[in-house]
Design brief:
Blueprint: E1 2-10, E2 20-27, E3 35-39, H1 49-55, H2 59-63, H3 68-82, E4 87-91, H4 94-109, E5 119-120, H5 121-129, H6 148-166
Parallel strand pairs: 1-4, 4-5
Antiparallel strand pairs: 1-2, 2-3
Helix pairs in contact: 3-4
């Protein structure tokens, strides 16, 4: 099984009523040399200006993004090509990120390669250090920019640090 760090940007709080604008995925391995970036045309007329502003894109720019079905199909193929067995979903905010990826996969392809599970790296870190008040974000090397590939990369770096420097037992094959 291969671990993938995922980050998404959206124009609202829930999929379906609002749109996933972009997402990034990084294969978590020692090289951190494989990533995927998707920019998706909105699927809804609904959008919240403040939510969209986080992504750095205007609504007009988003309307010119790629067809969501094509992006999700391409992402599914990329996951198959870069995964040793079932892909595992990791995220900084998995409750948010996973709901969009799951909805988009099922809506546009009929299947979610990740299945029904995801892992929150913040929770992993809290368990590893034995303190629910601690935060892992200081372990990132790549700056958090709200470009989803950058953000996924920083989170992947943090997960590798937990594994390589702090003794987290995790398989990244």
């Amino acid at each position: 099984m291969s671990a993938f760090m995922i980050d998404i940007e959206s124009d609202g709080p829930i999929p379906g009523d609002y749109s996933m604008i972009s997402f990034g995925a990084v294969l978590v391995n020692d090289e951190l040399d494989k990533s995927f970036y998707g920019k998706l045309r909105p699927i809804s007329e609904n959008w919240i200006p403040d939510a969209l502003a986080v992504s750095g894109f205007s609504r007009e720019e988003c309307l010119g993004f790629d067809d969501p079905k094509s992006v999700m199909e391409s992402f599914s193929i990329w996951l198959k090509e870069n995964s040793n067995g079932k892909p595992l979903f990791y995220s900084d905010n998995n409750g948010f990120d996973w709901q969009f990826i799951n909805w988009y996969f099922y809506h546009f392809t009929g299947n979610n390669p990740f299945g029904f599970s995801s892992t929150n790296i913040g929770s992993l870190y809290k368990g590893l250090v034995g303190d629910t008040f601690k935060n892992f974000k200081h372990l990132r090397k790549t700056k958090h920019t709200h470009n989803p590939v950058d953000d996924a990369m920083g989170n992947a770096e943090a997960l590798l640090h937990m594994k390589n420097e702090m003794g987290l037992k995790i398989s990244l094959k």
